[in-house]
C-alpha cells in the first residue's frame, strides 16, 4: 500500500524539484534516493545476520545516483567541484559495462559498479574496492564519494 501511494504521489508531482534534506530533487531522483537508502540499510541488516546478498544489475540506479552526486560529494566537504566531467566505466554484476560521461574525458574512474555503489553509500572502504581513478580530481572523488544527503560520514574502516 505505501509503495503504491508513494509511486502515485511522485508520478503526480508538478513543480520541478521536491524539497529534501540535501539539495531539492526531481521525483525520479527522489525515488532513486529511496532505493539507494533501502539497499544501503538492507546491507547493514544482511551483515548483522552474516548473510551476503547476491548483487544484481538492479543496482544501476544507485550507480547512476553515485555518478550524479559527484559534485555534491565535493560541496559537502567545502571543496570546489571539478569543472569537467569524468568518464566512468563500471562493470555491472551481470558483466555489462555501464558508461557515464564523455568518452574523451581527461579524468576517469573504472571498476566494479557494485564497488562504486558500496563506496558511495559508505558501506566499504576505498582500499577494499577495485576502483581505479585517473586524474587528481577523480582520485579525490573516490576518497569522498557520497550519494546520500547530510554531512559526510567517516566511511568504513579497511577490511
Q: Please list the strands of the largest sheet in the order they lie side by side.
A: 2-1-3-4
Largest beta-sheet details: 4 strands, mixed
Annotation field: number of helices = 6
Percent in helix:
40-55%
What amount of the residues lies in strands?
5-15%
Secondary structure tally: strands? 4
Mean pLDDT: 87
Structural class: alpha+beta
Structure characteristics:
42% helix; four-stranded mixed β-sheet; 4 strands; 6 helices; 159 residues; single chain; alpha+beta; globular
Describe the protein's architecture and organization.
- The chain is 42% helix and 11% strand.
- It is α+β, with helices and mostly antiparallel strands.
- The protein has a four-stranded mixed beta sheet with strand order 2-1-3-4.
- Strand 1 and strand 2 form a beta hairpin.
- The chain is globular, with a radius of gyration of 16 Å.
Secondary structure blueprint with pairings:
Layout: H1 2-12, H2 27-49, H3 60-68, H4 70-75, E1 87-91, E2 97-100, E3 108-112, H5 113-120, E4 132-134, H6 136-144
Parallel strand pairs: 1-3
Antiparallel strand pairs: 1-2, 3-4
Helix pairs in contact: 3-5
Brief write-up:
By secondary structure, the protein is an alpha+beta fold. It has helices at 2-12, 27-49, 60-68, 70-75, 113-120, 136-144; strands at 87-91, 97-100, 108-112, 132-134. Strand 1 and strand 2 form a beta hairpin.
Amino acid at each position: 500500500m505505501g509503495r503504491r501511494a508513494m509511486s502515485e504521489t511522485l508520478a503526480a508531482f508538478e513543480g520541478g524539484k521536491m524539497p529534501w534534506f540535501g539539495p531539492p530533487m526531481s521525483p525520479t531522483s527522489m525515488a532513486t534516493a529511496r532505493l539507494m537508502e533501502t539497499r544501503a540499510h538492507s546491507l547493514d541488516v544482511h551483515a548483522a545476520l552474516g548473510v551476503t546478498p547476491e548483487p544484481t544489475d538492479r543496482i544501476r540506479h544507485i550507480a547512476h545516483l553515485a555518478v550524479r552526486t559527484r559534485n555534491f560529494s565535493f560541496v559537502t566537504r567545502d571543496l570546489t567541484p571539478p569543472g569537467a566531467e569524468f568518464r566512468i566505466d563500471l562493470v555491472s554484476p551481470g558483466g555489462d559495462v555501464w558508461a557515464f560521461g564523455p568518452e574523451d574525458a581527461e579524468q576517469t574512474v573504472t571498476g566494479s559498479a557494485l564497488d562504486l555503489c558500496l563506496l558511495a553509500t559508505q558501506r566499504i572502504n576505498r582500499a577494499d574496492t577495485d576502483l581505479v581513478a585517473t586524474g587528481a580530481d577523480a582520485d579525490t572523488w573516490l576518497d569522498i564519494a557520497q550519494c546520500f544527503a547530510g554531512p559526510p560520514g567517516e566511511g568504513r574502516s579497511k577490511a
